[in-house]
Design a protein that fits this description.
The chain is α+β, with helices and mostly antiparallel strands. The radius of gyration is 15 Å and the shape is elongated.
């Protein structure tokens, strides 16, 4: 059996080294030393999401995976 790939490999929890903006809500900031969700694209560019917005982003990702699973099971 082949190895199962990690489809969420571009999502990580990181600690900000300096203040950053939240890409999910521009009114939110991520202060240095705070944990945040980091999403990397294929080029290595990162978008930062504060811990307040991270659950909503993860919920959306979970819905996409649920929809894909539903399409496979049809």
């Amino acid at each position: 059996m082949s190895k199962t790939r990690n489809v969420v490999k571009h999502l990580k929890i990181e600690v900000a080294l300096k203040e950053r903006k939240c890409h999910a809500n521009s009114k939110h900031t991520i202060k240095a030393g705070e944990k945040h969700l980091a999403e990397y694209d294929d080029s290595g560019a990162r978008q930062n999401v504060c811990m307040q917005c991270a659950p909503k982003v993860l919920d959306t990702a979970q819905k996409h995976i649920r929809d894909l699973r539903g399409a496979i099971e049809k």
